[in-house]
Amino acid sequence: MADEIINRVANSKLKVIDLEDFYPSGERIHFDIKDWLLEGLVLREKEFRAYVSEFDWSKFKDCYVALYCSTDAIVPDWAYMLISIQLQDYSKLTVIGSLMHLESIIFSTIISELDVSEFADKPVIIKGCSNKPVPSNALVLLSQKLKPVAKSIMFGEACSSVPLFKRK
Where are the domains of the chain? Predict the structure, then answer.
């Protein structure tokens, strides 16, 4: 009879953390305000306020929203603030910027609230490959959060990890 295959990784003290496991549900929306500007360039306060007040914001229920303007218009900060106030009762999060920026802020919040005590004095691998859009910035933030507690930090998979840090 052949020898039994033993999973040494599963039996080790090695802890694997996959940020994809923390990916929150909710549609990501990129909302362009250019159509609410005169010729896509000029914000006229009265008309802009009318668009904001008449718009059906409920369609963004439980979504993450990134506000932006795709033209070279100079948009005052209060315009984005006005929209975000309307979205506050519906969206999970509203930011100004790209979808990448939105994901970065989502993960920044997740990592700041993450309890890393289970990784204390243990070797940790931060999993690198994912099917969901985990921003690179999240990997940086996670490694910084783990450094004070982990015995060592590696990146990749258990079979082919890159060492990043080892406490002396």
Answer: 8-24+104-166, 28-91
